[in-house]
Write a structure and sequence with these properties.
This protein has 364 residues and is α/β, with parallel strands linked by helices. The chain has 2 domains: 157 residues, Aspartate Aminotransferase, domain 2 (3-Layer(aba) Sandwich); 156 residues, Aspartate Aminotransferase, domain 1. The protein is built from 13 helices and 11 strands. Helix 1 runs parallel beside helix 2, helix 1 crosses helix 5 and helix 11 packs antiparallel against helix 13. The termini are far apart. Pfam families: DegT_DnrJ_EryC1.
């Protein structure tokens, strides 16, 4: 379905990245640096730190989730082990351009497709990984997929997983219980009153990092996935193509309505010739004040309007020990002016029109 070589299942997308980086570190022990976008999930930084590697940040381009390629060119050298172009929110990064820049230095390109299962990705990089976490379309509550274009590298990834991933049956039992609870509550009523209630309380208290789930622990759980959860994911695969088609059509229809509003930038892939996926729609407002005014009305609603990551990486205090303290102006601006609208099939057209009216009021 993904048009890729066989993938190996991991307990999370973060675990998949840990396996990939550990394998590359063993291959190239003299290369200590990994380049990542300055706006991405904090778990990426924690995985790099977990593997004993160092982070180099690359700023974003103007009004895009993709790299600032001029900045990327400046920070490339023979000490860089890997670069992680990120397919943020299911939108596809320019991996071919990254690969062309990385090849002369012998740098491995790892495609971060944690939010892009089903998109046209994994074809240009050396390694690709996905997340199967809750809310990702295909899930076993927590899980991941990992693959490589080169067969020898793929075998090494499997060998590394056998070496560093423990069984931890009690932790896996916890995941099974969480999956059963998630299955029982995965409906508009359950999500609104269980997940939404906690989130609204955190937003009202101003605990925004906790509200969006950016408060990660430095300890990364690593364990084998049980046969039971593998079977759950196998059955879910049958429903995935139809789900992706429905959400893609819904997103494109609603984006057309958003495009009629002034002063609004829809964040999307730079090429029209590739297939993206749409777990949510990313909007970039002209100013932080406009973005915050919209969120003040909608964030605590049940309509699925939120923020993705609260800050660019240098502005997370708890990451200060592992993130270089460099200014990343485009990434900071992206974090300050971007919001997301869920693309859940449960969001009715009437509810979406309510969202549109609020946005229109603050962008006119």
């Amino acid at each position: 379905m993904l048009h890729l070589p066989p993938m190996q299942l991991t307990c999370s997308g973060t675990a998949a990245l840990v396996i990939a980086l550990t394998t590359l570190k063993q291959r190239y022990p003299h290369k200590p640096y990994v380049i990542i976008p300055a706006y991405t999930c904090p778990l990426v930084a924690l995985a790099i730190h977990h593997c004993g590697l160092k982070i180099k940040l690359c700023d974003l381009g103007h009004n895009t989730f993709d790299f600032d390629f001029e900045h990327l060119t400046q920070i490339l050298d023979e000490q860089v082990l890997a670069i992680l172009p990120t397919h943020l929110g299911g939108q596809v990064a320019d991996v071919k351009r990254v690969k062309a820049l990385a090849t002369p230095y012998g740098i491995t390109v790892i495609e971060d497709a944690a939010q892009a299962l089903g998109a046209d990705v994994g074809q240009s990089g050396d390694i690709v990984f996905y997340s199967l976490a809750a809310g990702k379309g295909l899930t076993l509550f927590e899980g991941g997929l990992l693959g490589a274009s080169n067969q020898n590298l793929a075998i090494q990834l499997q060998e590394t997983a056998q070496q560093i991933i423990p069984q931890r049956p009690f932790f896996e039992a916890k995941r099974i219980i969480e999956l059963l609870g998630y299955t029982a509550l995965y409906n508009p009523f359950g999500l609104h009153f269980v997940y939404g209630q906690v989130r609204r309380r955190l937003v009202n208290r101003g605990q925004l990092i906790e509200a969006v789930g950016d408060d990660f622990d430095f300890s990364i759980p690593l364990h084998h996935v049980s046969r039971f959860r593998q079977n759950v994911a196998t059955h879910a695969v049958d429903r995935l193509p139809e789900f992706l088609q429905q959400t893609r059509q819904q997103a494109l229809t609603r984006i057309k309505q958003l495009q009629d509003l002034p002063n609004l930038h829809i964040v999307s892939s730079n090429s029209d010739n590739i297939t993206a996926v749409w777990p949510f729609i990313m909007l970039k407002l002209p100013t932080q004040q406009q973005r915050d005014n919209i969120l003040n009305e909608l964030w605590a609603s049940p309509f699925g309007v939120s923020r993705l990551f609260i800050y660019d990486l240098p502005n997370y205090t708890y990451l200060n020990a592992i993130i270089p303290p460099h200014s990343m102006p485009n990434a900071a601006n992206f974090a300050q002016t971007m919001l997301t609208i869920t693309n859940s099939l449960w969001l009715t057209e009437l509810q979406f029109q309510q969202i549109l009216r609020v946005i229109q009021k603050h962008v006119n």
